[in-house]
Amino acid sequence: MKKLCVVLIMGVLILSLTACATKIENPVIRLSTTTSVNDSGLMAYLQPVFEKDTGYTLEITSAGTGAAIEKGRTGDADVLLVHAKASEEEFINEGFGEVRVPFMYNFFVIVGPEGDPAGVKGSTTAAEAFKKIADAGATFVSRGDDSGTHKAELKIWKSLELDPTGQPWYVSVGDSMGKTLTVGNEMQGYVFTDKATYLAHDNTLSLLLEETDDMKNTYSLIAISPQRFADTNYAGAQAFIEWMTSEKAADLIAKYGIEEYGEQLFFILATK
User: Fold this and answer.
1) Domain extent listing, the chain
2) Alpha carbon of 36 to those of 32, 87, 175: distances in Å?
3) Does residue 131 contact residue 209 with C-beta atoms inside 8 Å?
4) Mean pLDDT over residues 196-222, rounded?
5) 271 — pLDDT class (breaks 50, 70, 90)
6) pTM for the complete prediction?
7) Domain 26-106+217-268's class?
């Protein structure tokens, strides 16, 4: 009987020690993410599965990529989910982040009034479409918020050697993609947006141009450097990155949108 009691006590101790060894030290992960993955509903779709699988809790802050990255610079995030390669690389080179992990993409699209007064439909590139809009002086509604989408838009204008700032037809909203689409609907203007947010939004605007070579939109994950901020939840950030790049997450991401919109909205980057 004594031997049985000793065995039972030892078993309890082993289980307790194992539980302590696997216990999550900090269960809250502060995720700073671009609005597109939030406004499209993707994060709301993935979050409960991630939390159930890992035991972590996500505390999500959604903003344009510029503002999302800034949270990393001030130590107010543990991990970033953003989409502006040049800004991401600058962030890492400054020592604020660890490795950039590109993992999925979707496409920007150009939407506008059904009548298409600038004749955008039929363009072969976003640059060609932008030139038509500028030449026609047709209303163009920009996010104007230093987001990844805004940065991509400005890159296209720059390729044309055009600066639309101050033009009467160019409207800068300075807000999220959802708000920009709302203004675009109200003004019946052209909008450069990611397709997922467009489909998730109530629209009177028509899809006029999509999936051209210059409209691919890549998303990356970046853990905040513990060398820069000692109190960052680095273990949690790594757990989030590991889960988001897992086969399970890839399968979930690939399925997102098919049931509701009849098409895949986000795509996993091929790995070598």
Assistant:
1) 26-106+217-268, 107-215
2) 12, 17, 12
3) no
4) 89
5) low
6) 0.81
7) alpha beta
